[in-house]
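S.,

Sequence below, as promised.
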Amino acid sequence: MTNYPLMLAPLDLGFTTLKNRVLMGSMHTNLEELGDWNRIAVYFGERAAGGVGLMVTGGMSPNAEGGVFPGAAGLFNDQDIANHKTVTDRVHAEGGKIAMQILHAGRYAYNHKAVAPTAIKSPISPFPPSELDSEGIEKQIVDFVTSAVRAKEAGYDGVEIMGSEGYFLNQFLVTHTNKRTDEWGGPYENRMRLSVEVVSRVREAVGTDFIIIFRLSMIDLIPNGSTWEEVVTLAKAVEAAGATILNTGIGWHEARIPTIATSVPRAAFTWLTKKLMGEVSIPIITSNRINTPEVAESVLADGCADMVSMARPFLADSQFITKAAAGKADEIVPCIACNQACLDHTFSMKTSTCLVNPRACYETELEYTPTDNPKSVAIVGAGPAGLSTALVAAQRGHKVTLFDQADVVGGQLNLAKQIPGKEEFFGLVEYYTRMLKVYGVELRLGRRAVADDLSGFDEVVIATGVTPRDPQIKGQDGPNVINYIDVLRDKVHVGKRVAIIGAGGIGFDVAEFLVQLGESATQNLEEWKSEWGVGDPSTTAGGLAAAGPKPEATARQVTMLQRKAQKLGKGLGKTTGWIHRAALAMKGVEMIGGINYEEITSEGLHISTGEGRENPRLLEVDTIVLCAGQMPEHSLADTLEAKGIAAHVIGGADVATELDAKRAINQGSRLAASF
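The prediction came back faster than expected:
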């Protein structure tokens, strides 16, 4: 008897059956652009072996003008077909099914060839698009069809036609981007014509025994977006045109509302697919912030959808389904929705991976093979670097002893989980705690390790993390000055008026902690929707609340400062930095750059501006919080070196850059793989 009977139930599509109700949603990893097709095949093959019902590739361009960027992957010739067949053959050998996503970027194309229904430049692309004439539209339709036919020749079980997220087909659907007055614009029946025509002609070309998923935007989250009536109308029309399944799209890429970041409540948009259930007879997939078997099962039990889409969770753990089916859900590596190694990499033109699983997309390079030479391994520090080293080493068969001066494992992760919007870190620490037991790691907690504790081990790893950097401000030893550890770990009293010195990741985290009044909005969907201005597309087109964002009152008056004369938060994540800045702006946080810290007194913080130390003034605040960076804590490493004891120094103890958990986990995992 499974704990997840709905999630693991087969889904009969008539001509084929999916083994369960889970879709591995599309993720563009930039793997295809590398040209190493065996590597791509191993990546998808491992996830097929992990039991997912159906996978969707990253977006494949139907033509040059539709590519998200120049050189974007697609199926343009016989060699492309042969390359893709390497992937489909591997997936089928592992008992899986896979569909290829056809993605035409339209005006989102980072490409001087960009085309669109109307020549209106996107705010997220520097290239203004050309307006298509009727002949040009026909070409786009033909290219969609050709791409689908080639996908079938390459062995794919189906295609997903991308009709959401503000891409090409979505651009035709709404008056925000479609100002045409011909048969492709004006009334909704004309604006939806292109989507319907594409699905209809693809179905005609590929036959009946081929999956066609249409990715339908349920809520655009932009002005002049689709109404709910239009969403339902399109769903029915696409079904009639031959779609097999409807998948969910949420928000346009240019929307100013977060949709998948860790601060978004779990299953935040499943209420939309629930509204659509019963309007069509084909299966409906729901998506966004579904990251555990429990959440997936509850969404299906609530009648929100016929299937659930999870994407990033399959980067975190390729064996997600297998572990859930075996009753080992607590051993699933949790996706924390951080975006740091997946989406941030994608949009920086890097190969994607996963913060909590550095093997993701690197399966052929980073292998955790059982060792033929078991060693005794001592690791000092149970933060992300030490934990990842311990688990990989123990998984491979080494005998691991893990030291930490704290009474619990987690290190700086225990600070991160205190931040409103970062509650997923609780699950990550629980996972590490569980897996240390599974792999039999010996824990020595609650006492600071010394050099003598480390004698007799074959390998010694120093992962002692960081200490707060001393900003050396006159008066910083006063009673009104504390640091971020005092705030997040020790919960010391903080006054109503606060100045935060330092505006890196920690400064922003502390600011979000200090402005929070009551329950985190991430834990309360209705409060979160109100805070960001998410409405109902049945009421307002596009689903933007008529009243706009209505954040809760702030707990404190906060001013953030930095020495650098640049926008605060510039170094934050590429896809999440804007969310942190917007969230704090809504709470009235003042952000000031180019500041000199002159002196701290009982009255507050004395500052000036620029190299000339101009405009001196006093910030009258009750508390000053130091978040001025970190320094490596490698005193133990220095002692060992002096004693001639070899040790590996990793994580923050090696380089103290913004408490970089991504780098720390990757470094620790790779080190342990080398033992």
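The longest strand covers residues 211-219.

Coffee later?
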